[in-house]
Each structure stands twice: as C-alpha cells, then as structure tokens.
C-alpha cells in the first residue's frame, strides 16, 4: 500500500471497520468513484480494513470510522472532510486544493446560563484541535430539541464556572450533533445527551454519573475516575 502511495499523485483511502454503519453507507459511493477513475494512471482509491490492519491504521492516526485520507506521492497527507458521495469524491480528486463548496457551519450559542461563557463550543472543524489542546475535557454531545439536554445545560454551565474558579486543569465542551454531524458520527452518538471524557487528546470513557455540577466537578477533579454512581 505504501508503494502505491509513493507512485500516485492522487490517492484517496477509506479506513473502515466492517461493522460500521456509516462505512457501509459510504462504500457504494466510494466504489463508484473508483470505477470513475479506473483508467486514470495518476489517481487511485483504496480501502483498509482496520480490524485486520490495525497497525497501519494506527500509524495514520485513525480514531474513528470511516476515516478518509488523501495522499499525494506520500508527501502530502491530509484528512478528507467533504461529503461522502460519488459527486463530492470526484470533485475533490479533480482539484484537491480547491476551496470546499460548503462554508463552515456556524456555532450556535449553548444558552444564556451562569458559566456558559466558560464552555468550549465545538464544531466539526475545531474538534480535533480542541481535544488535543486541552489536557482533560468532558464533552456534552447534545441536540437543541432534547428535553434532557435542556434540563442539564444549567448544571453543565455551572460545572464550567466552578472549574474556572478553582483553576482546575480541565474543561467542559459542547457539540450540537444536529449541526456538526461528522464528530457525532465518529463517536457513534445514538442518544442525547451523551457525555464523553477525553484526556491528552484521546477518548477515555463515557461519563455515567449524576448530571449535577458537583458530580461532574468531582469526576473531573479526580482525573476521570468513576464516581460512586458508576461503580
């Protein structure tokens, strides 16, 4: 595979897992794109099953499925963040340096609660940067229409405020899954709110404790150790 990367100007690789639903939906579009470029000597599409070739996937920092990466003679390596349709794949490979068609979706305000200004607001674009930058991070994946999310928001904001006041090296963040769908898909979010704890850029565990500011604060003070409610 690495020899292929070195020889081709344009290589698009889908890193996937056989059980992944999003991968199954993307596969026909990816296959049709490969057929489109079959006679182009400079362009190639490939797929890597990360359940079989885990070392290779780890070497390219694959953390979710599907992850699609673009290679040019193995010198240029970057993640493909466009839509997973045949049309979008073809358009990208014809001009990888062109500006994306879609403008970045705007960040919606979390809500006007005491402490909400301390919450980091995540998007598909800044997600990776933020989780790598912050040493400890509790992320609330939510939907604006979700009643449980609405009930939890004031406590989540209060936790953010307490963390700032106590100068604890941990933060809380929120992602609207109805707008920024790629990050939600990457972590297979199926219900709202879902809370996930990250440390040093890596997902560590789900938070299953009580949704009060004090309980979340206690969890983050401990560096992500389970609370009594989770044991």
From TrEMBL:
GO cellular component terms, semicolon-separated: endoplasmic reticulum
Record-level GO BP terms: protein folding
UniProt xrefs under Pfam families: Thioredoxin
Domain annotation Thioredoxin: ranges: 1-92, 93-225
Keyword terms, alphabetized: Disulfide bond, Isomerase, Redox-active center, Repeat, Signal
CDD domains per the UniProt record, alphabetical: PDI_a_PDIR (cd02997)
GO molecular function, one term: protein disulfide isomerase activity
InterPro entries (alphabetical): PDI, PDI_a_PDIR, PDI_thioredoxin-like_dom, Thioredoxin-like_sf, Thioredoxin_CS, Thioredoxin_domain
NCBIfam families: pdi_dom
PANTHER family in the record: PROTEIN DISULFIDE-ISOMERASE A5, PROTEIN DISULFIDE-ISOMERASE C17H9.14C-RELATED
Membership in a protein family: Belongs to the protein disulfide isomerase family.
Full protein name: Putative thioredoxin/protein disulfide isomerase
Lineage: Eukaryota, Metazoa, Ecdysozoa, Arthropoda, Hexapoda
């Amino acid at each position: 595979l690495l020899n292929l990367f070195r020889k081709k100007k344009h290589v698009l690789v889908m890193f996937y897992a056989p059980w992944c639903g999003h991968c199954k939906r993307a596969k026909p579009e990816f296959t049709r794109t490969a057929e489109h470029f079959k006679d182009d000597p400079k362009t190639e599409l490939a797929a890597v099953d990360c359940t079989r070739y885990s070392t290779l996937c780890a070497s390219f920092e694959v953390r979710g499925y599907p992850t699609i990466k673009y290679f040019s003679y193995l010198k240029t390596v970057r993640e493909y963040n466009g839509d997973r349709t045949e049309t979008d794949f073809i358009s990208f490979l014809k001009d990888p340096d062109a500006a994306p068609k879609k403008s970045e979706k705007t960040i919606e305000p979390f809500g006007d609660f005491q402490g909400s200004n301390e919450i980091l607001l995540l998007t598909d674009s800044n997600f990776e940067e933020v989780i790598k930058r912050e040493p400890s991070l509790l992320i609330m994946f939510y939907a604006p229409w979700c009643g449980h999310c609405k009930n939890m928001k004031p406590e989540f904001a209060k936790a953010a405020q307490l963390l700032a006041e106590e100068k604890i090296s941990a933060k809380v963040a929120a992602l609207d899954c109805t707008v920024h769908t790629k990050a939600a898909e990457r972590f297979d979010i199926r219900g709202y709110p879902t809370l996930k704890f990250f440390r040093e850029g890596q997902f560590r565990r789900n938070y299953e404790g009580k949704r009060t500011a004090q309980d979340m604060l206690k969890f983050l003070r401990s560096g992500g150790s389970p609370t009594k409610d989770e044991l």
